[in-house]
Amino acid sequence: MDITQAQRDVRTTFLGGFAGQLVSSVIWFLSSASYAWLSFKTGALVLVVGGFFIFPLTQLLLRLMGRPFSLPGHPMNGLAMQVAFTLPLTLPLVYVATLYRQSLFYPAFMIVLGAHYLPFVFLYGMRQFAVLAALLISFGVFIGLYLPKATSLGGWVTATVLLTFAFIGRYTVLHSE
């Protein structure tokens, strides 16, 4: 297996993460709005439940864009599956942090989401994911430590960062391949 070619396959098929990050961004925006204007519980449910639909919604978006939406039998599929399950498996940590202080929901989620993006650097062969991970983790720590009363701020920041990186990834793939 040629790793460089495998990474290129992932990068071009999924447009540098464009569709997945766009879908994720929308879910984070909906969650943040729900948290800010309805209730903490509603915002948390939108993010957690919506998160389970990111992959199918990403595939749907890719199909609607007329693009391939999967890589059957591809050597990176195993890694992609493992990466996908890291986030749901860290939700108990977010839950425990939230039990301590409800305002830590988004900051804790940002930190685990950032850590979840680190393997994408190898999966896609794109250093942008390291920057994305560093920003999410840094903002999560900063908001959690220094802005504890800004309850939905982390959600808005994450949604905006994901939206920005969706277009960065798309631009990178469309202008480099």
Folded structure, characterized:
The chain is an all-alpha fold and 177 residues long. The chain has one domain (3-174). 78% of the residues lie in helices and 0% in strands. It is built from nine helices and no strands. Helix 2 (18-37) packs across helix 4 (54-64) and helix 2 (18-37) runs antiparallel to helix 9. The chain is elongated and about 50 Å long. The model has no long low-confidence stretch (mean pLDDT 92).
Global shape: elongated
Low-pLDDT residue intervals, each spanning 5 or more residues: none
Secondary structure class reads mainly alpha
Rounded mean pLDDT score: 92
β-sheet strand percentage: under 5%
The total beta strand count reads: 0
| Alpha carbon gyration radius | 16 Å
Listing every helix as H and every strand as E from the N terminus to the C terminus, the arrangement reads HHHHHHHHH
Counting DSSP H or I runs of 4 or more residues, the number of helices is 9
Percent helix, as a range, is over 70%
Biggest β-sheet description: none
Q: Roughly how many Å apart are the termini?
A: 20 Å
Count of folded domains? 1
